Amino acid sequence: MTMYKEQLLPIEKVFRDPVHNYIHVQHQVILDLINAKEFQRLRRIKQLGTTSYTFHGAEHTRFAHSLGVYEITRRICDIFARNFSIEKIGPGGWDENERLVALCAALLHDLGHGPFSHTFEHIFATDHEAITVEIITSPETEIFQILNQVEAGFPEKVASVITHEYPNPQVVQMISSQIDADRMDYLLRDAYFTGTEYGTFDLTRILRVIRPYEGGIAFSYSGMHAVEDYIVSRYQMYVQVYFHKVSRSMEVMLEHLLDRAHELYQETPEIFALHSQLLVPFLRGQFTLADYLKLDDGVLTTYFIQWAEESDRLLSDLAKRWLHRKPLKSATFDEDRQLPLIEELKLLVEKAGFDPTYYTAINSSYDLPYDFYRPKSGVHRTQIELQQNDGTLIELSQVSQLVAAIAGEITVDHRFYFPKEMIDRDRSANYDLFSETYQEFTAHIHNGALI
Amino acid sequence: MTMYKEQLLPIEKVFRDPVHNYIHVQHQVILDLINAKEFQRLRRIKQLGTTSYTFHGAEHTRFAHSLGVYEITRRICDIFARNFSIEKIGPGGWDENERLVALCAALLHDLGHGPFSHTFEHIFATDHEAITVEIITSPETEIFQILNQVEAGFPEKVASVITHEYPNPQVVQMISSQIDADRMDYLLRDAYFTGTEYGTFDLTRILRVIRPYEGGIAFSYSGMHAVEDYIVSRYQMYVQVYFHKVSRSMEVMLEHLLDRAHELYQETPEIFALHSQLLVPFLRGQFTLADYLKLDDGVLTTYFIQWAEESDRLLSDLAKRWLHRKPLKSATFDEDRQLPLIEELKLLVEKAGFDPTYYTAINSSYDLPYDFYRPKSGVHRTQIELQQNDGTLIELSQVSQLVAAIAGEITVDHRFYFPKEMIDRDRSANYDLFSETYQEFTAHIHNGALI
Amino acid sequence: MTMYKEQLLPIEKVFRDPVHNYIHVQHQVILDLINAKEFQRLRRIKQLGTTSYTFHGAEHTRFAHSLGVYEITRRICDIFARNFSIEKIGPGGWDENERLVALCAALLHDLGHGPFSHTFEHIFATDHEAITVEIITSPETEIFQILNQVEAGFPEKVASVITHEYPNPQVVQMISSQIDADRMDYLLRDAYFTGTEYGTFDLTRILRVIRPYEGGIAFSYSGMHAVEDYIVSRYQMYVQVYFHKVSRSMEVMLEHLLDRAHELYQETPEIFALHSQLLVPFLRGQFTLADYLKLDDGVLTTYFIQWAEESDRLLSDLAKRWLHRKPLKSATFDEDRQLPLIEELKLLVEKAGFDPTYYTAINSSYDLPYDFYRPKSGVHRTQIELQQNDGTLIELSQVSQLVAAIAGEITVDHRFYFPKEMIDRDRSANYDLFSETYQEFTAHIHNGALI
Amino acid sequence: MTMYKEQLLPIEKVFRDPVHNYIHVQHQVILDLINAKEFQRLRRIKQLGTTSYTFHGAEHTRFAHSLGVYEITRRICDIFARNFSIEKIGPGGWDENERLVALCAALLHDLGHGPFSHTFEHIFATDHEAITVEIITSPETEIFQILNQVEAGFPEKVASVITHEYPNPQVVQMISSQIDADRMDYLLRDAYFTGTEYGTFDLTRILRVIRPYEGGIAFSYSGMHAVEDYIVSRYQMYVQVYFHKVSRSMEVMLEHLLDRAHELYQETPEIFALHSQLLVPFLRGQFTLADYLKLDDGVLTTYFIQWAEESDRLLSDLAKRWLHRKPLKSATFDEDRQLPLIEELKLLVEKAGFDPTYYTAINSSYDLPYDFYRPKSGVHRTQIELQQNDGTLIELSQVSQLVAAIAGEITVDHRFYFPKEMIDRDRSANYDLFSETYQEFTAHIHNGALI
């Protein structure tokens, strides 16, 4: 009788996927993991949170993304097995025994994501990576039970890939490095569902030049431009999609809304007990894994619908603005010089009748598009290595002008957020009373920046 | 001062759309309608309901679809205005004064959709088309207020397009006929998001051959094959996506789940008052438009998460099966011959411990891919007309062999649904006790059909 | 030492291909065949002959198509080897020893095509299939020498696949049947390069459902709609691209031009000896394989450029019309009724100053989109079989309404071609003299058909 | 009666195009130009010359590209007319009277291209731009006659756009600048037909942000990343497609082949008179426009087929290598240091039996991906300007890190070409005799570069 870990489906099962065409499932283990209830929950968590408020196609879920990361990993394993197996090329080659742990880690790496990830984590002090590990290693979950059936200790092995502690760097870098299955899937998927073309790079070409070596994963030197193109696409997605000012505005409002609820709970917990039961453990600051697994994007939104009718003016107004998509407006500013000006502007906002704590915000986006190893910096990212004909490695930014231009440089976008009413003359209910404040405020904004 | 109805945005506003590339908004009225809260709600209603359980990419919303229908209508108006204006070609030409009413009707035609449309409507006796009309014509809605600002009576005018009572057949057929902007958008959009290619037809070519005439909308004879290809694509989407047995299984379960809740509410209304407040008006059978507008897919799912923990075994089990995606299995059957057999099979299901009322179902899918006018049948669809060089019209199925093959024929798929446990030996908890029933049941299924 | 037939390239070689993304070459034999001079000649033969005069993107070559057919065959072999090897499933399974002969036959099946295939064949009585076999089996060719190095008799084995005499029906049907690698590649490729979408079907899905059986190749019953979609796409490509009236007009003119040259050669061979040397063996009616292999599309066109300056008025005028793309016009007609009318029209054409032999033509396009086995008809095509769960086969048109609608029906388009001058009033040099003939002629054409 | 220049087609005519979907022709003038024989000749000139030897899909022609440039220009005119007409926005706005001259110049800008452009020009001292102007302004051409019918002097006006002498910088920059309709079409078209994705940028987005100003054409600041993406795509196409070492090898061989013919003509002109008549005027160094217009890719290749059989060993061998695609191999080198080494290597090539004049070459590719205005350099390119909300302009590389990284930097690739036999042990006929030379030569090549 075949052991569970080696049990292959008699007929390969597929999931139709717009990005990879088909997701191919060959192991019973993988199929069981997909059918586990903790994995099915990911259908109810959007991949891009508030981005769908800017790009209306971006409703895709963590479920779809997780299948995609699994599929890319599976394809890499196939290529490694065919061309670079350890039996064939010796040390530095791929050990086919690593396949299952790699596939499981790829599939499960995002399991702990909650609703509106970063915002929620920030307000309620949760940590999706720690929760991922917890789901994988807690005996009560279906995920644990499936993995444990593979062999004792297997859940911990899968978790160690996710925490970067797994000994084989090839497996770790497949799932997590500057060019891994996770990033490759999300760039292609987010580009597809937003309808932008910036994130499109040539995955088949990358897969043609990827290869294992003793220190992890490298790329054939001849594929340098394919890798370069991936880095540039990633950069473009950050500045144009992930940093989009309107999505960030919706995040800012979500944060203020949850903040207000948190604050209000201290005063009047009973109103939340009435209609926001699933959120109460988090408002109270005591929650179990089971509590966490009941949350999703729709649960929070359901509560917002009810908050919109609450008597607390702030809670109600913020909930309505969020539900009806009324984002704050914004302008860029210079962090070194203009913080005092922002304080002045907040006073004007207050004068116009808006509590600046809830109706203004500073929000900064950061990304490091690519980095090489710098012993003295705090950053220790796995750099991207290109392998020459003779086997020697060269770090990517050494040979790519384009990558060198953005390597090690943090891309930042600082924005000050404020109510649309401050600059929208027609919309101000009582413009006459308000005209002086309006003129003072708008005088400080030119070409989209504070002046 | 420009009247509101003629107010054009100084700079055209666009929404990035994966299907049409850009949605172009030129009128202030249209922008205001999109920003109205009743329209924003459509972001929280999936276009395809339970289909995302089969095709994981299909998370797209009624919001996106509504923008798409608007955009196709806008492009048709542009083509009509450029080439076939009534000033230019006389009677049968396009009257540019109809543009705004057409655009508004296109944008708003799905406004009344609720969560999981047909299932919900069936259980709670709502009607999305009537509600669409109600939203458009009720003075309390933002939509009404915007439309009424265009001119008195304009909301009713827009509503009359949706109810097919508007006098100009060109406008009505643009939004609703056998080849209209609604169908063209959903076929392309559903194909894109499911990742199937069946729904793909050549929209630009259809738009090249579309033309107005006195009786409505026709297509140039030279574009016959483009129209034919659209009909075939539509047929393929129905049989392969919309009729998919797994999506229908999830619908069946949803129906049983809501049914059980409805029933239980009669006995113990208090448990729903505790955690399913927004649904109570519907369980009780008395709801207002405001109640309706608070519902969305996420609200229902939030309640299902709570029902999963209720003490009623049926409610809890059905909720879990739905949340964790455990569809019923199915087999096709012959409606004329096999209804008695189904009664027998239900007894076996009962013997195996499942209440057949909640764990079995008969579900039939019907579609009429295309029909021509048949005075004696009850059906009076607007047939598709091709216009020859000399202006005369020919009905499509007269000249297309492919369309003739499926015209007037209702495509049906009858299925009997039952628990997976009935045919899944490994999964049956106590196979020994159960083996006889199992063998009797499985003996009646061969090549996916009852025998 | 590895035998030549088993010699795999150390690193797989790829060709970038717009249709299949990459063509993967793994055997030294295949790489050598591609580099053989007889195969490189295919770069100079267009896949679609005169179609590029209608669809200007359609400049793709027999070289690209041949690589594509090879690639699809390679993918089928991979799938068969992985899932349906004879070791695994027994009789009816795939024997991996057949791979190389299948790949070679796929790659080489079009080797004998000459310039403007059918027209040239018709005038000069050549036969591209016979020449393909000759190239493969003649000791003087590079192709033969490479194949013969595999093993003695291998060239004949490859040739026998092309002539359908090879014993294994799986190999024969892979290359030649109603749904083979040849047709699948040309539909996708012609759709891509013409820029039409009609030929697009879902190749990956077809490959998912293809399977070997003892009688050849079948498709899983669950993939019925994918196969149906392929048949419909093929039908659409025929009626819209391959039968296009303008491409056929250019073929008609090419035929008349070569005819005139053939005729003229009998009278004055010396003018062709001066500038059309490579064509002389064919005009004379005695040619060797080496003569044939020197011809390509460009050679003929070079001679047309020179013929345009010859003193023979007919040769010169036809050459110019061809080079400068001045197609004849056409109208459809009813073969049973209207042949006498055509004779009348030819007289009018003659009256207008055009020799009807060279300036008019009857041209009919035929295609049989799909056929099943009919013992009494002359046609014995391999019908498309669907395989049910229990292994039994059903013929496609038994279950597909769409396929049934076009199965066994020959699609025909009869056209009468004549000079544009006959219906183009503005272009007629001396309309006054000509007006009566013009009016008589045009009175017989209505809605694009003869009346 | 409508003047010819204003004559619009009653029904817009379209050409199906894989890149732009449809090319829309609205003016009778444009249709007549497309049908002119000098324009039809472009069907027989490949856009990318020898690149199809590397990317087998790249068979597309100057004809298709010219239609594409016309179509992009037409779309720009439409956008300018709708949003930025001079009547609407005053000075700096678009004058609709410029449309026809812009469209004609766009369509005709490549009219003078000959076979294998740059190589041919180099050997025979022709100049395609001068010939373009000559075709447009010579009374004997059909093109001239059509343009002159628009109005006297119109041909010269169109020609002046091509020579950059036309007074309106908007029209000139539309056709010729660092981001013009010409470049935008060839990047997209070459990417499509080669099957690479590097050249893909978002044309619709560029067209959304393009706008006229007094100094020419600018782009909205908000579209900075779209323009940046175009520059990066262009850079990628250069380094990966246009600079491809194999295509350049084929160019090198073509140059040597034509060189040898040129040389041989001085000695034995009679052999060319026999079979290469159309080339004789060029070999002789005296040709007319009519001679030039008879040449195309196929004419040259026809002669190569005949040269392959000539008794001159060099001419014959080079012709065969070209026809059968036997490229020279290459290695990169350092121009400053390694020229002496190359002289040594040439001696080894000679020792191995190959004349270094014909069997080796130095070939360098240069491109300046983008440049800004630098008063002191010789280069005066029109820099790309971004327009801010307040109307002020900023040069692109001031705000784009990626563009700054490649701006003003010439990308170079120096390669030394030599016979494959020098490094291909298996292929060397007499390796024993040759082994010492082989070892000496190969010792100087490492990781694809000379050492």
UniProtKB/TrEMBL annotation, chains A, B, C, D:
CDD domains attached to this UniProt entry: HDc (cd00077)
InterPro entries, alphabetized: dGTPase-like, HD/PDEase_dom, HD_assoc_2, HD_domain
Pfam families, alphabetized: HD (PF01966), HD_assoc_2 (PF19276)
Coiled-coil features, chain-numbered ranges: none
Domain HD stretches: 62-187
Record protein name field: HD protein
Biological source species: Enterococcus diestrammenae
